[in-house]
Amino acid sequence: ETLPKVMQGAGALVIATSAIPVCDPYPKCHFPPGASPMEVDWVGAKALLAAFASATSSRGLGHVVLISTMGTTTPEEASDPFGHISFYKLNFEADLMSSTLPFTIIKPCGLGDSDPAKTQLITGHDDEVNPSPPMISRADVARVVVASLLQPSIAAGLRFDLCSKQGPATGDDGLVDVLKSARWPWQPGAASGGGIVSV
Fold first, then answer.
1. pLDDT digits (tens, 9 = 90+) for 58-109
2. What tens digit of pLDDT does each residue of 113-146 get?
3. Is 52 in contact with 64 (CB distance < 8 Å)?
């Protein structure tokens, strides 16, 4: 009930929420009351999207950037200790893509807290990005989010995996190329070669 008022005047929306399991120890995991993947990554995300769309519909639908996750091509086991979080994230991706709002879906690999702009960013699709270790700095994900908001003509309509590897560091001046590398080979403006691209 409070979300539509909060969204008034917003020009874009970044959805970076995620259910967080509490494991004591793994695989004995649970979620705090009201914070399960279904409640956060599905019901909550849909509420954010609906409120934003309603608030911006009169002046043109705004850009939505979603931070989802890699690993959604592999079905989760029935006894998944993480509450089928990938299932709910993937379903919301589909909801967002069918909403008619301009969207960018960023699907990072494992998240770490290292400094930004220290590694080479790589993009791909369908969980085919597989560096060792499969990690990316949260700060680097944030940089790609900001680049998506600043370059909507390039970022809108993209859904891509994002990870990093050792190599020439991707600076801020290379973030537009990161977005271009995330296009499929047949899309206008795609990086030459398509597929998994290091930038």
1. 888 899 999 999 999 998 988 899 999 999 999 999 999 999 999 999 999 9
2. 999 999 999 999 999 999 999 999 999 999 999 9
3. yes
Residues belonging to the chain? 199
**CA–CA dist 150, 116 (Å, integer):** 18
Cα 180 from Cα 188, distance rounded (Å): 9
CB 101 within 8 A of CB 45: no
* Reported pTM: 0.94
| CA 27/CA 169 separation, integer angstroms | 36
Residue with structure tokens 């930038």?
A: 199
Distance CA(198)–CA(67), nearest Å, equals 20
Spatial CB neighbours of 172, under 8 Å, sequence gap ≥ 6: 117, 143
Helices (H) and strands (E) in the chain, counts: 7, 10
